[in-house]
Design brief:
By secondary structure, this protein is α/β, with parallel strands linked by helices. The protein is built from eight helices and eight strands. A hairpin with a 5-residue loop joins strand 5 and strand 6. Pathway: Purine metabolism; AMP biosynthesis via salvage pathway; AMP from ADP: step 1/1. It catalyses: AMP + ATP = 2 ADP.
């Protein structure tokens, strides 16, 4: 049976987190999120963790070689022998090339890269739809969870709402553009290696996962 060595891609709001949880539950592979392994390496005071901490403490970006080292240490652990799900790495071509090299050295080469594609306009609508009641803090969404009566909070009857800075259109648009710029070279890189699988993320969550399952079941057999 082929090991499922996977990498998950998608713009903010594409539903990556939800699909990652389902993949991990269904296929019993460890979820390797860069945020989690950074925190673990720093807490455990590994060599790479201490190096990363020194940069973070100075308010600097952690350089690729340290990030690559932390990912390599994690991939070398025994629980990844039958597969893993990488999330948040690689972020650039240099990291992708480093991952390719460590995959060969550790016998953990990628089996597939799954990109959940949602057009940026839909994502803008998804990500800017959240609003909060100023009085009681209840959270709503214009598309997915609107107030029962327009302009009135279901919980406290308040009429004043606000948006967090992160949810404002200009901020979200900028974040999407930055991510799009970052992801495009990676998508090209993995397409050239015949590893890329595009999934339509504009469907209901269950349908997205059905498409993911088709790909993973074909790879495993």
């Amino acid at each position: 049976m082929t090991a499922l060595n996977l990498m998950l891609m998608g713009l903010p709001g594409a539903g990556k987190g939800t699909q990652a949880e389902r993949i991990v539950d269904q296929y019993h592979v460890p979820h390797i999120s860069t945020g989690d392994i950074f925190r673990a390496a720093i807490k455990n005071e590994t060599e790479m963790g201490l190096k990363a901490k020194a940069f973070i403490d100075r308010g600097e970006l952690v350089p690729d070689e340290v990030t690559n080292g932390i990912v390599r240490d994690r991939l070398a652990e025994a629980d990844t022998a039958q597969g893993f799900l990488l999330d948040g790495f690689p972020r650039n071509l240099a990291q992708a090339e480093a991952l390719e090299k460590m995959g060969k050295e550790l016998n953990r080469s990628l089996t597939a890269v799954i990109n959940i594609h949602v057009d940026p306009d839909s994502l803008l609508e998804r990500l800017t739809g959240r609003y909060i009641c100023r009085n009681c803090g209840a959270t709503y969404h214009k598309l997915f969870n609107p107030t029962k009566t327009d302009g009135t909070c279901d919980r406290c009857g308040g009429h004043e709402f606000y948006q967090r800075e992160d949810d404002k259109p200009a901020t979200v648009k900028n974040r999407l553009e930055v991510n799009l710029k970052m992801n495009t070279p990676l998508i090209d890189f993995y397409q050239q290696q015949n590893l890329l699988h595009e999934i339509n993320g504009n469907q209901p969550i269950d349908d997205v996962f059905t498409d993911v399952q088709k790909i993973l079941n074909d790879l495993r057999n």
